[in-house]
Model the fold of this input.
Amino acid sequence: MSEYFNVADIFGEDVFTDKVMQERLPKKVYRALRKTIEEGKELDLATADVIAAAMKDWAIEKGATHYTHWFQPLTGVTAEKHDSFITAPREDGTILMEFSGKELIKGEPDASSFPSGGLRATFEARGYTAWDCTSPAFVRHDAAGATLCIPTAFCSYTGEALDQKTPLLRSMEAINKESLRLLKLFGNTTSKKVTPSVGPEQEYFLVDAEKFLKRKDLIFTGRTLFGAKPPKGQELDDHYFGAIPSRVLEYMKDFELQAYRLGIPIKTRHNEVAPNQFECAPVFEEANIAVDHNTLLMTLMRRLAQKHKLRVLFHEKPFAGVNGSGKHCNWSLLTDTGVNLLAPGKTPKNNIQFLTFFVNTIMAAHNYGPLFMASIATQSNSHRLGSHEAPPAVMSVFTGSTLSAILDSLEERLSDKKLTPDEKTEIKLDIGKIPEILLDNTDRNRTSPFAFTGNRFEFRATGSSNNCAAPLIPINTAVAEQLTLFKAEVDKLIDKGVKKDEAILQIIRKYIIESKKIRFEGNGYSAEWLREADRRGLESIQSVPDAFKIFSSKAYSKLFDKHKVFNESEIHARYEINMENLIKKIQIESRVLADMAANHIVPTAIHYQNILIKNVQGLKDILPNEYLDLAAEEIRTIQTIAKHVKAIRENTYLMVEARKKYNHMDNLVARATGYSEDVLIYLDKIRHDIDKLELIVDDELWPLPKYREMMTIN
Ligand code: ADP
Ligand code: MG
Done:
């Protein structure tokens, strides 16, 4: 029997929500906590003690035995260390369950095993976690029972960020500050806060657990390192419109149920392009919470897949030649009074404000495009970016033809010459009409890395396994920077005696002109676009190590430093961590492939070859005169197999030699570049011969599930 539930009844039941806080905390304590949440005011320990006690009682009622500081280190997954609530046994042999304010606010996990890029010497294991009270605590239920999870930031002992959350929160503060300053220019003095709103669309593949467990490459690297595409005429597209198998639906329902309990507002579920590829998307939330919820959701999805004898793949390109997975980050700016700053308003004044934020975001993409693209560069995402179904690593912005025409017309009409009062009125009236035109939201471009979709931007280059904070940090910071510059330029004109509205429009026009080359409405996957981008002088990212270099280059460090998002040593630490991760990823892939080639593929190929040889010899015994003619085809196959086996062996040897060569290099950049250029190449070469063998060797003998089998769930 399937379990039925009313979403409204269970939504957020495992979350220490605002409602729960209001019910359980003394008024004074509640107000102090709200002040901390809203204004970042520091909490005193006495108040924290009261909150911690209430949180503990609430969690114990939900069955919790332990608590954990839950954080997002730079390994790309979440981490936690569990402590139980018990205190030392008393004399009478009983114990108390306790949780102090100090334990709530700060934790000291043994941080030595998390990457720190040299920021924290390993012997100095003390990193610390600090409660992020802007993201609610929750109780998670899993095999370990129930655990109170406290979202935390993770820093080195000297305060440097070792996680994704800390810089994200800092970048949110930067954009909050600059947006509020700019809003004053539009006469808005009531808004107290502007937050980036984020809705991440999560794509993923599902594979039957039994087949998954037969593929070491999937287990250890998250992707298939080889696998021939099904023969012609059997393209995988036929699965696209097929109904979702009920086993998959049950899985979806199950993780959605758990997500609702944890207050994650999942809204959409649907098939994606490839067979067994799906997507789910929540209703957007504040950036920080959206990121926490997305990482939590990924954990849930992994865990529940096991329960349904499935495995979920978040790798961007688990199957070569098959559509990859992304995580489109929808991003906008929302005021605490409920105004979406990237949605056109109802009056000309509101729309000048919309145009301001809109054009500044485009300008940010123009000035910091390579930084945006570099922020989501990972080894796994590189297999997806640049291939046919995803935008190549060149930044461009899609605005839709309507807005594009509006920008062009503003550029033309707001010329340098003095406008007559009539002309000014007309332009303003036209700006006021934007919302009506934009309602037609069908104008979509799925090939643009950064597309405006009516009331938000969608950063589509983000990979399905990326933490959304990675792109959000530079986007928030770069837009904050643009807003600062914009305000300064407008103020300068106003000081010169130009009227406010006119000053704003003049700078909008200036930005429209300056950012023109980043706007592209055509097919972002086409070869023409790459040529065109080159002609326009847009920087493209050639490799993953290059992306890391770009991210940490001087110009961008200055940006981050100015807005207090990263200091220099934090940038450098990230650079080292990224390079190290890259090397490790390729190293693991290389080892796994060598192992699979030597222990599964080559023996199977030789086994089949022997069967053919026996057959040819048998023919020779029976038909000594004709056998050469009769067995010609088989002899050719024997030769072909021998050729592929030889190539696999040689390339495996050369790959191992290349690894040895680069392992001995002390210079991190040389090592990473070597791995990503010289070692990676052999992965492709070896794969080529294995895929050929897969098509030759008897299906019965092939020891590993093939693409089509892995893409079937029944
Ligand atoms: P599509 O696939 O058509 O782009 P989806 O419905 O799958 O759209 O996902 C759109 C995502 O964008 C959802 O997560 C949605 O909540 C989010 N979104 C909508 N409006 C905003 C906004 N103002 N700010 C941020 N995200 C938004
Ligand atoms: Mg979608």
